[in-house]
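Late entry, evening session. Most of the bench is empty. Finally got around to the prediction I had been postponing all week. Sequence below, unchanged from the version circulated by S.P.
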Amino acid sequence: MPLTIRSANGTHRFTVEVAATPAQQERGLMFRHSVGADEGMIFPADPPVPATFWMKNTLIPLDMVFIRADGTIARIAANTTPMSLDPVGAGEEVAAVLELRGGRAAELGIRA
């Protein structure tokens, strides 16, 4: 599905997979060897939740973009460590988490 983020550097369009089911959310981007520059996966939450992720079985670094219900970005966990079991959280309730290729948010000037 298409997803657009507006930043100080302009509008950025991505094609994202939606992790809608519990099974899809559990697997996420595990076992993948790459994610395209303008690709990713979004994890919606309705109602918003205090989302926490880990990188178990995730082979590549990811940027985790934690998105509030109003569409603003609460936090970006940049270049998360592949295979790590350390929890990565938003620090507040969010309506979605967008996972992008590691470093992509900084490349595009996307900030909280």
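Two things to note before I forget:
The chain has a mean pLDDT of 97.
The helical segments are 22-27, 104-108.
Will write this up properly tomorrow.
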